[in-house]
Structures are given as structure tokens and as C-alpha cells.
């Protein structure tokens, strides 16, 4: 058992940090999760992560596994060395020596990458986009992200990423997002705006199902909106059509730039399944230039769920040919 090649994947997210010991076929042999308290200092975050990783490493040792390294996914940009976050969603870790700390603690080599790069890699090597030469992954959760595989390589051109495409402007007179953009896709169709829309439906009594959920829970989530739609609530179903349409318009623009063959939608909101995926694809094909949208064979839901970026982070060692070239020497 212990002879199987393995690597450790760590996905430092805005709400949770997900960690796993991953085999070369994508099986997660050991997994751990740690809440990410937004207001805590860097040392508090890293102590909690180190404690969970210590459990993981001990389990690996007992079971005869020798991980090849630790891949770390962060949401945002890295410094020029690739060893420290430069500007990520968890600002307490900006300019903190994350890689050095992990190397010192466990003695493994460490490589860090952007979470969307890790996400598209997860799908490309383990998921629904396995081996697709031109693959796009769109994630919808607390934020909205996108990354692509182009001709079997991760596209890393803007500080090692595709930039910040979730902030594409789709409604110039729309709301301002936490990052300061007005009317960007993230300000309209990420999990926060979806939750607020669900609560507005509940308070207006347009949706009796959501009104009951709000009275019982005090707040709503996209998952509640999904359950209401599944139960036949027309207002909830119409809301998913609206959300999907906004996302489809953003996707139509991205498709014109990157011409993917397959688009995979992941992230927490993608749990809505066909209520989200079908209107995204329909609006992309309605609004996008047919020359480009015809090249997209399908738009489908991720099979990897919320472990998408964690699996991709581990793949930086399991499949080192896809690791970031600008971190020369980090991956043997």
C-alpha cells in the first residue's frame, strides 16, 4: 500500500483550509479540514494548519507513505519567488513565509500556486476534464474564478495566473464588490449576492418555501435556494435562471478569448447542478459569437466538489510537468 506515489495538497480558502494526502490516481487517502477565521493573525492561521498537517503526516508515516512534496493553493497572487502570498483573499497571510514555514516544519519540498490554476489542474488530471487539450474551469463560490488549460499547459501569464476574470464588468451601474469593482460578475452572481437575493424573496413572500427557511434559520444560502427550486418553488427557479444568465454572459466573453473545448463549473454554488449549469450554457450560446461558442462541446458540473483546488495542489508533485515554471527548482 505505502509504495503508491503520493503528495500532500493544501487549499487555503477564505472559509476553510482543506488538506489531503493524495495518490497518483486522485484517491484522497487522508483528508482534514480547518475553518479559516478571517480576522485572525497569520500565526494563528498557520498554527492551525500545521496541527492538521501534523496529523496527516503521522498517518502517512504509520501507513508507509512517503509524500513527494506539499502543494499549496492560495486565492490570489504570489510574490516573484513564488514562496509567499502577495495579494490573496486572506490578507493576514500576505507576504508571510508560508512555503518556508512548511518546509521547516515537515522537511518536504513545497510549491505554491494560484487556486484557479490548481482548480483547472485538478479537473485536467483527475476530473471531468481529464486530458482535454483546451479546458476552462469556472468556479462560483464566495468569489468567481476562472483558469484554463491551453494546448495541455496551464495558462500562467498575469502574475502566474489568468488575472482576476471574476471581476469582468457586466453591469456598469451595478453594485460595488468588496474588492472595489462596480458591476462585476462577482458582485452579482457569487454566493453572497445569491444569498441576499434568496432572502429578499423570502421577505417579500414571493417564495413561501424560502420564507419558512428564513424564519427557521435567520439567514439563507445558495443551498437553500437550490432546495426550494427542487421542491418546485417557481420564484427560486426563476432566480437560478437569472444567476445562470449573468454567469453565462461572463462566460461568453471568456470563451471569445480562450476558445475552450469544454467548460467545467465548480465551487460551492455549482452544487445547484442543472438549475445553474443549463442557464449558464444557454446564455453563453445566446449571447456569444457563434464562431467561438460552437467550439465549446459542453458545459458541465465538476465532479470533484470542494476538494478541486486541494487535488490540483497535490498534482503539482504527482504530475510535476504541470507545475509553475516560474518557480524553477521548486519541483524536482
Structure overview:
There is one protein chain. The protein is globular. The protein is built from 11 helices and 12 strands. It is an alpha/beta fold and 332 residues long. The model is unreliable at 328-332 (pLDDT under 50). The chain starts with 5 loop residues before the first strand and ends in a 14-residue tail after the last helix. The longest helix has 25 residues, at 234-258. Helix 5 (191-203) runs antiparallel to helix 8 (234-258), helix 7 (222-230) packs across helix 8 (234-258) and helix 8 packs across helix 9. The protein folds into 2 domains: 6-119 and 307-322, 2-Layer Sandwich (Nucleotidyltransferase, domain 5); 130-303, ATPase, nucleotide binding domain (Nucleotidyltransferase, domain 5, 2-Layer Sandwich). Strand 2 and strand 3 form a beta hairpin. The strands form 3 sheets. It has a 5-stranded mixed β-sheet with strand order 3-2-1-4-7. A 5-stranded mixed β-sheet has the order 10-9-8-11-12, sandwiched between helices.
Amino acid at each position: 500500500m505505502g509504495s503508491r506515489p503520493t503528495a500532500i495538497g493544501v487549499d487555503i480558502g477564505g472559509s476553510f483550509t482543506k488538506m489531503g494526502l493524495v495518490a497518483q490516481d486522485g484517491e484522497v487517502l487522508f483528508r482534514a479540514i480547518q475553518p479559516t477565521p478571517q480576522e485572525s493573525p497569520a500565526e494563528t492561521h498557520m498554527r492551525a494548519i500545521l496541527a492538521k498537517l501534523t496529523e496527516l503526516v503521522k498517518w502517512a508515516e504509520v501507513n508507509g507513505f512517503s509524500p513527494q512534496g506539499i502543494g499549496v493553493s492560495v486565492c490570489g497572487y504570489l510574490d516573484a519567488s513564488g514562496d509567499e502570498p502577495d495579494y490573496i483573499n486572506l490578507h493576514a497571510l500576505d507576504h508571510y513565509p508560508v512555503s518556508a514555514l512548511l518546509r521547516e516544519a515537515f522537511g518536504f519540498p513545497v510549491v505554491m500556486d494560484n487556486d484557479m490554476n490548481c482548480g483547472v489542474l485538478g479537473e485536467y488530471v483527475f476530473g471531468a476534464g481529464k486530458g482535454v487539450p483546451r479546458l476552462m474551469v469556472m468556479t462560483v463560490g464566495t468569489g468567481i474564478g476562472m483558469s484554463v488549460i491551453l494546448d495541455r499547459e496551464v495558462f500562467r501569464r498575469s502574475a502566474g495566473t489568468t488575472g482576476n476574470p471574476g471581476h469582468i464588468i457586466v453591469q456598469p451601474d451595478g453594485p460595488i464588490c468588496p474588492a472595489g469593482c462596480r458591476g462585476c460578475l462577482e458582485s452579482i452572481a457569487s454566493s453572497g449576492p445569491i444569498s441576499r437575493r434568496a432572502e429578499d424573496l423570502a421577505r417579500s413572500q414571493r417564495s413561501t418555501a424560502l420564507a419558512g427557511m428564513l424564519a427557521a434559520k435567520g439567514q439563507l444560502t445558495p443551498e437553500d435556494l437550490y432546495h426550494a427550486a427542487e421542491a418546485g418553488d417557481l420564484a427560486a427557479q426563476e432566480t437560478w435562471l437569472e444567476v445562470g444568465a449573468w454567469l453565462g454572459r461572463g462566460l461568453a466573453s471568456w470563451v471569445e478569448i480562450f476558445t475552450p473545448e469544454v467548460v467545467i463549473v465548480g465551487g460551492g454554488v455549482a452544487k445547484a447542478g442543472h438549475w445553474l449549469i443549463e442557464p449558464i450554457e444557454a446564455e453563453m450560446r445566446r449571447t456569444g459569437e457563434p464562431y467561438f461558442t460552437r467550439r465549446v462541446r459542453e458545459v458541465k458540473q465538476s465532479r470533484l466538489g470542494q476538494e478541486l483546488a486541494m487535488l490540483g495542489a497535490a498534482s503539482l508533485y504527482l504530475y510535476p510537468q504541470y507545475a509553475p515554471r516560474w518557480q524553477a527548482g521548486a519541483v524536482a
